[in-house]
Please model this.
Amino acid sequence: MDEVFDFGLRLKALRRKMNLSQQALAQRLGVGKGSVYRYESNTQTPSLEMAVRMAVLFRASLDYLTGLDDRATIRLDGLSARQEEAVRQVIACFLSP
Model:
């Protein structure tokens, strides 16, 4: 990788995108607010189990959280087959030359 990855910045951005305080995120993850602060300031690295919890909560891939992949992920869970196809068609319009 050419760029420096900052797990803490990515975590903070996802937390803010969901309008969660550090305390609210800590409660959802089952940790103390201090742990969230340390994750965001890169002074503590979450365990794999905790990273998976974060990925599920934020509906993000572990690759995204860890900086291996910078692409956005669109989850289609809960959509009907017709709705899913409509989303795919819209995305295809943006990707075609």
In short: DSSP finds six helices and no strands in the chain. The helical segments are 7-17, 22-29, 33-40, 48-58, 62-66, 81-95.
